[in-house]
């Protein structure tokens, strides 16, 4: 039997999505360093324009640090309903080319165009046409990675940012991966990258040289994934029905809180944000978790699982109030609270995650 044809996967990633939307809609912001977020003492940058990035301003950076690096930085309040509306425009374009669309967030998605619905000669040309339509219809730029699997396509989309595209062919995939730092690999975060460095693993070539037994001894269940991606291998399909595992929201207070009423009010605000998503997506979970971070950065969680899903806002608020009450009054100040619902009984809706720190984090 002949082998099936290689998949043709495109990873589309909008360029500095939130910041670019703000610059598009406010001409006075164009060409200026812009951060989406809040300039509060404990604010966090949700997204940074490319002008801001030249100063080292990045998403998830504390606002105070961002302003220190770039005193001319302009903060704008996030407008998530606007970003969601633009995201829907973009996904409507994707749907003209394939049914196999796996959103990762509002601003990025995998597309499997192996079936070639529009009869375009190559996946490269397909990506180019999609990016051109996004620019024409939204006035925003996107970057694309094209390859035979999801891992490589996502890596490739970073190669020509902003407003470019890059392809990794089957002939070049394994060798290309060997040249890259492991910190760029999906599934290798800063902590794991530091651990790998201590073990003498800094590039894809270093990772490939390690045996599966060695990787199992040091990385447990992740070993098979690291072993595969070091060789440019990834068999995961583009899954348009990928289920959402949880929905959560958290906020960092402007100051450490010790008053029970203020802490409870913060938890209830997060519960209301989570409920808003659950209600719209018609996705209801059995487990409610409250997250608490103290002023000394010690982190704890308190959870409760129910026999059936939490299906009313009042029930979610009650559960959140009871869980936060387990640590009240606090022995020390609390800087952050969060609420998460998990163990869904129904399939979740679109993967437009609720905000962290009061805002989404745009890593593009």
From TrEMBL:
UniProt cross-references to HAMAP family, sorted A to Z: DNApol_IV
Example of a GO cellular component annotation carried by this entry: cytosol
GO molecular function, one term: DNA-directed DNA polymerase activity
Main location: cytoplasm
Binding site for Mg(2+): 13, 107
Enzyme class: transferase
Known partners and oligomeric status: Monomer.
Every UmuC domain range: 9-189
PANTHER family: DNA POLYMERASE KAPPA, DNA REPAIR POLYMERASE UMUC / TRANSFERASE FAMILY MEMBER
Protein name, per record: DNA polymerase IV
Catalytic activity as recorded in UniProt: DNA(n) + a 2'-deoxyribonucleoside 5'-triphosphate = DNA(n+1) + diphosphate
Domain of life: Bacteria
Keyword DNA damage (UniProt): yes
Active site (record annotation): 108
Site (Substrate discrimination) residue list: 18
Family stated for the protein in its record: Belongs to the DNA polymerase type-Y family.
Coiled coil: none
Source organism of the structure: Sphingomonas psychrotolerans
Cell compartments where the protein resides: Cytoplasm
Pfam family, one: IMS
GO biological process assignments: DNA repair; DNA-templated DNA replication; error-prone translesion synthesis; SOS response
Function field: Poorly processive, error-prone DNA polymerase involved in untargeted mutagenesis. Copies undamaged DNA at stalled replication forks, which arise in vivo from mismatched or misaligned primer ends. These misaligned primers can be extended by PolIV. Exhibits no 3'-5' exonuclease (proofreading) activity. May be involved in translesional synthesis, in conjunction with the beta clamp from PolIII.
Region called Disordered, residue ranges: 234-258
The enzyme's E.C. designation: 2.7.7.7
Cofactor info, note text: Binds 2 magnesium ions per subunit.
